[in-house]
Amino acid sequence: METIKNYLDNIFANLPKTKEMERLKSEIYYNMEEKYNELKKSGKPENEAIGIVISEFGNIDELLEEMGISPSSNSENHPVIENEEAMEFISLKEKTSYMIATGVGLILLGVSLLIFLATLVERNLIFKFLPQNAREALPVIVLFLFIIPAVILFMYTENKLQKFKFIEEGKFEISPGLKNILNSELPSVTQKQNIPIITGVSLCILSVVVLLVFGIFESFAAFGVSIMLLMIAAAVFIFITSTSTAEAYKKLMKIDEYSPERVRQNKVIGAVAGVIWPIATALFLIGGFVFKLWNICWIVFPITGILFGGFAAFYKAIKTDK
Q: Would you state the pLDDT for residue 76?
């Protein structure tokens, strides 16, 4: 029996040290022991009995694979997440999603007001009593008044999620029991976000319609942009808050966009985004400050978004083919 025990110990050596694993190991050992005793009673020699038991239970690896576990799954000594910690992570992601969504909304609202106020200043409709330089600076000041609290929210959110940084980096494992729970709950969680996503998409489409309608009248085009940004801000808020729970589930399960392969792809895409979007922002600010084109230089963002989206899709397609 010592041989059988050592055999099991070797199989479970690199697996997560969880109660679920201990229970599974005990059950397998109990079944192997029963089979061994049965063979011994039938007159089989010890070595032959051990060989038969191990051969009959030699598909333990297949059982582990069905449970989403492999002997190397914990080879890097990653922490194993149990139910309580997972629920805490999911709850925190839900709460912080509102902070992130609010921050993004504040920035879009600030840009919307910037364009709106800059247009009014350009047409000499407001702040007539102020010097020209002060009038031109006020819309920008308003923008930064919205950016500052947004940045504070982002920093606060990052600080709150710091304790779960290892999850964001994918350096963890989950117990089989937790994986089964998450897998069974994910469909209902995903279903709950369908209506909010449809609402958000509808707002985005409607915002383009609003822009086109206002664009018919050249003098109102800038106001159309402001309204479009407000509608997009509302849509983004809905997207971020409604998908946060499903996103947390997928991160824990390492599936879809959080699978190891997709994570590697997203690192490259993220690196490109880290270059492209600051350049777009710089062009926006240069166009506004230097050339006083606040009412039109916003177009750099949708153009950048389209080009970047095309690059991301192309890159993923290439990697998938490989």
A: 55
Q: Which of the residues in the chain have pLDDT under 70?
A: 1-3, 6-7, 10-11, 13-17, 57-77, 295, 319-322
Whole-angstrom distance, CA of residue 10 vs CA of residue 251: 30
Block residue for tokens 């504070």: 152
Q: Which residue has the tokens 């997972």?
A: 86
Number of domains in the chain: 3
Q: 45: which residues sit within 8 A by CB, 6+ positions away?
A: none
How deeply is 30 buried, as exposed, middle or buried, from its count of CB atoms within 10 A (0-12, 13-18, 19+)?
A: exposed
Q: Using the 3D structure, point to which of 67, 96, 113 is the last residue of a domain.
A: 67
Whether residue 75 lies inside any domain: the answer is no
C-beta of residue 232 within 8 angstroms of C-beta of residue 204: yes
Do 52 and 21 sit in the same domain of this protein? Answer: yes
Specify the DSSP element, H or E, that contains 174. strand 173-174
CA distances from 155 to 107, 116, 145, 159 (A): 14, 28, 16, 6
pLDDT at residue 319, as a whole number: 65
Q: How far apart are CA 17 and CA 21, in angstroms?
A: 6
Q: Does the predicted TM-score (pTM) go above 0.85?
A: no
Q: Are 189 and 246 spatial neighbours (Cβ–Cβ below 8 Å)?
A: yes
The answer to whether residue 74 sits within a structural domain is: no
Amino acid at site 93: K
Shared domain for 13 and 156, answered yes or no, is: no
Query: What is the domain extent for residue 220?
Result: 81-255
In a domain, 221, yes or no: yes
Phi, psi of 173, rounded to the nearest 5 degrees: -130, 160
Burial 232-249 (b: 16+ CB within 10 A, else e): bbbbbbbbbbbbbbbbbb
Handedness of CA 309, 314, 320, 322 (dihedral sign): negative
Distance CA 297, CA 283 (A): 8
